[in-house]
Write a structure and sequence with these properties.
Oligomer: single chain
Strand order of the largest sheet: 1-4
Number of strands: 4
Order of helices and strands: HHHEEEHHHHEH
Strand content: under 5%
Number of helices: 8
Number of domains: 2
Largest sheet: 2 strands, antiparallel
Length: 272
Amino acid sequence: MPHWAECILLFAVYSLLGWICESTCCSIQAKKFINRGFLNGPFCPIYGVGALLIIKLLAPFSANIIVLYLASLFLTSILEYFTGFAMEKLFHAKWWDYSHRRWNIHGRVCLGNSLIFGVMGVVVMRVVHPFVMNILERIPSFLIPFLAAGLAVYFIGDTIVTVHTILDFNKKMAELQKVLDEIREKSHALLEEKKRNMELAIESRLLADRKPYTEYLEKLRQKQAALEQNSKLLHRRLMNAFPTMKSLRANESLARMRAALQERRKKWRPKR
């Protein structure tokens, strides 16, 4: 089996297994199905990369379970930390946050998860990987390059769609945040104008000055409602997949869109 093809197939297998574990745990906790993961398809790339690193780098330590456990713990923790850091810088959002847990580092990693990842590293190396390789070796050799190439094209395509979705989502949040800020600004200006007019006791001026503000405010509120309510399917998937996600630039608008989505769910639920 070509090395490049083996890496792609292993990445796909462990990304799928990671997605199954993540989605199952999150779905049980939320009592509904959640398509967990960065990509739209049933794959969590961080698990695929983590498994590949463990398999390729820690193979010399596979016989020593203590060293394997500690090395897996540190390797996966470093991967999770820098993945979180990179995604924050690229997409201006904090996708997961462990700040509420003890022994965390900048909310990107925490001791509890790292201990679990160490165990998972041992299980992957000593139990899962031999089983996975046994299955992959049963695939006809002439099919391997085509299967690997097809998966590579799929992952590239899904990544492009996902990145476009995130950029579009960020653009929508920024637009909504601009509307919210302008509503606050105009509401404050209207309040100040009302106070001045009341002090002057000129009713005609009060009505003349308030009308342009109130009409413009009404248009802004209509735009706000449209931005909050009309969320795209892939935008909703992101909010569902990462319920603790925080926008670093427009978190107020994200919170409002999430609240609007929850309100829509309540309306969709059948009455008993």
